[in-house]
Amino acid sequence: MKNILNMIVHTIVCTLAGVFFILLCMYHSSCHITPEGIKLVSDGITSVKIKEYSIDEGLIQVWFSKTVEPESVFAVESDETCTSIENFLNHEKKMDVDCSASNDNSLRFTVRDKTQIGKTYDLFACVKDTSGNTLSFTIPFYGENRNFPVMVISEVSDFYSRKDGICEYIELYAVTSGNLFGLELISASDDRHFALPCAEVRKGDYVIVHLRSESESCISETGDNLSLSRAKGSVNGVRDIWIDNDQSVLNSTAEILMLKNKARSVVTDCVMYCRQDYALENEKWKSEKLCEASEICLDYGLWHGEGKPSDAVYSMKRKTTSHISRTNIKYLNGNSGVKNSRDNWIGIAKSKTTPGGPNMW
């Protein structure tokens, strides 16, 4: 009996010790569950927690579990050696950051120094609550792009042939000049997001976004040399961008493509297309993702009509391959606000596609 009692006591003690350890971890900075992207670099125990944060055009706002005030705030260009408080505090090139408090337990950080488009930086901050508890953390962010171009989707092909080395592409046309960094393409059918790189474009330029890259010759041309890419489908003198992807993309039966300014959280262009038989058989889009994308396009005023399949451009009835081309490019040069609709698009044969050049029909 004595041995049994000892075993029970031992079990209880071990259980309580485990619970104590878990509770300790809940309050220790290295065990905090934080929003994705934030890295805690605090030493010791703190009761301050980060609830969420947002980054919008150079403004970083962080919400905390209680009221805090900043003790130390600055930014540095990202460096793999910065892994502790000492590394950050001793960094040679600190960037000034303005900080202001809001009445919702949040702090707003604005980098005062100019950042370079596409480069990665880390915001470092040490905050303190009214009890004297401190929390140090870093948030990665990109150099701000203040010069976005007006871009439109001008041609789409979902033809893929591994044998012939041909892949799906989305062609973009630059209505104005600017930098592509911060823009992304979205295929709504599978909710795939394709980020565009840091690259300057001029008014009137075409950009071919190839949606698969399966060889070393698939080189994205982000600089001035537009003849680097040697892969099948590349066009010399036109900017070729290759997405790091080897999976199937674009639904040839029904698809909605959106061009989004991710940095400003706004969709700027779209195109809806489907096979004609799909539109005749379905009053609504069959997938929830396509329905949501259709609503988004209508909310932004980017597509004429009710956003139904019957309002979409019909792709060609050639096997399962879709090739569609925009017909009103020349009118966009003088009016970037021209509303998009099925009347501005046409389904074309593969022989009529013109990646990187003026559309023809």
Q: Would you mind describing this structure in some detail?
A:
The protein has 361 residues and is an alpha+beta fold. It has five helices and 21 strands. The chain has a six-stranded mixed sheet, with no helix packed on it. Strands 13-12-17-18-19 form a five-stranded mixed sheet. Strands 1-8-7-4 form a four-stranded antiparallel sheet, with no helix packed on it. Strand 12 and strand 13 form a beta hairpin.
Q: Topology, pairings included?
A:
Elements: H1 2-27, E1 39-40, E2 50-56, E3 59-64, E4 68-77, H2 85-89, E5 97-102, E6 106-111, E7 120-129, E8 134-142, E9 151-157, E10 169-174, E11 178-179, E12 183-187, E13 192-195, E14 200-201, E15 206-210, E16 239-242, E17 254-261, E18 266-274, H3 276-281, H4 288-299, E19 313-314, E20 323-326, H5 329-332, E21 345-347
Parallel strand pairs: 15-16, 18-19
Antiparallel strand pairs: 1-8, 2-3, 3-6, 4-7, 5-6, 7-8, 9-10, 9-20, 10-15, 11-14, 12-13, 12-17, 17-18, 20-21
